[in-house]
Design brief:
The chain has three helices and no strands. By secondary structure, the protein is mainly α.
Length: 71
């Protein structure tokens, strides 16, 4: 039991140190927010077929809708 308490205190202390002295502490909050949202790299591939459209066609073949919404 005391081991859990000791571990919990150590984890809280580590978290506090990370939040106050961590690698993000020198930056402005606005810059941190933008960096957190934007990916550093973006990968795009050109596809001959749209995978969502193909999946929709498959679902439309399988699903029977009462009002023929998918037909």
């Amino acid at each position: 039991m005391w081991l859990r308490r000791k571990r919990r205190k150590r984890m809280a202390k580590d978290l506090e140190a990370l939040l106050t002295d961590g690698h993000l502490s020198g930056e402005e909050p606005e810059e941190r927010a933008v960096d957190a949202l934007l990916p550093k790299y973006e990968s795009r591939q050109e596809a001959e077929q749209d995978p969502i459209e193909e999946e929709t066609k498959i679902v439309q073949k399988v699903v029977e809708e009462e009002y023929d919404r998918y037909r």
